[in-house]
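USER:
I wish I could look at a protein chain and see how it folds. I am handing you a single protein, as its sequence and its fold in token form. As I understand it, each token names a local backbone shape. I hope you can help me see how the letters and the tokens relate. The protein I mean follows directly.
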Amino acid sequence: MSPAKKRARSYDSAKIRAAVLAQFGQVRDAVLALTPEQLSARTRLGDWTVRELAAHFTMAVGAVARGLEMPEPAKHELALLDWPSGTVTESEAIADGTRELAASAQPSELFTRTTARIEEALAEAPDTRLIPTRFGAMTLADFLVTRTVELVVHTDDLNDALPGLDVPYDRQALAACTRFLADTLAVKAPGASTEVRIPPFAVVQCVEGPRHTRGTPPNVVETDPLTWIRLATGRVEWRAALDDAKVSASGERADLSKLLPLMS
């Protein structure tokens, strides 16, 4: 997979590390308080129950520790902004692994074990350390940014499955996820004719066409972070978001329906 042409933005490593641990901790606390009936509830993720979704959190975060425990790869293979395009190719394998993990242990055991492993693994590992992933070797710093996407997207899935649960979103995790998916759109549709605004976290320009230089852009899309994340990951369709006034779009190049979702 060739590196993305767009240079990835810089993320504060200390904040990303703290955000991953904080969001995982909030999910852990919520899951460990669930009843057997709640764990058996259906989610919007195909045939997954909440139990399987819970297992997936531990698999996604545990991948950091597993990668750091393995020999360091010889070369850097995967740029940060290339990661989303690889997730589709491995979706079936990821789903199978999640089901096996959910059947292997109780959520309390999985979360306790993963918390200990990730905290120990991150204590000494440098940001530049290469770790193997399903899609190629990435730096630890880049891989942790992708974990904010996994955690925030699936926290939203968990809240959707259990109305009233309301697991909170760590602000730094939500910001990183929003910005990363906005940058992914800019890579997928390079250009500067359309401005996509996701206050308070991100603004990107994308889509081929006349370049905007000053004043109010002729093509503007604006939405909130969670709606953007749902659009980018296929949880909400473009037309439905427009109809529900969750998105405002003005200009002939402001229709992003053919570009979404960016990943699933």
Q: What stands out?
A: The longest strand covers residues 194-198. The chain has a mean pLDDT of 94. The beta strands are 130-131, 138-139, 194-198, 202-206, 220-223, 247-250.
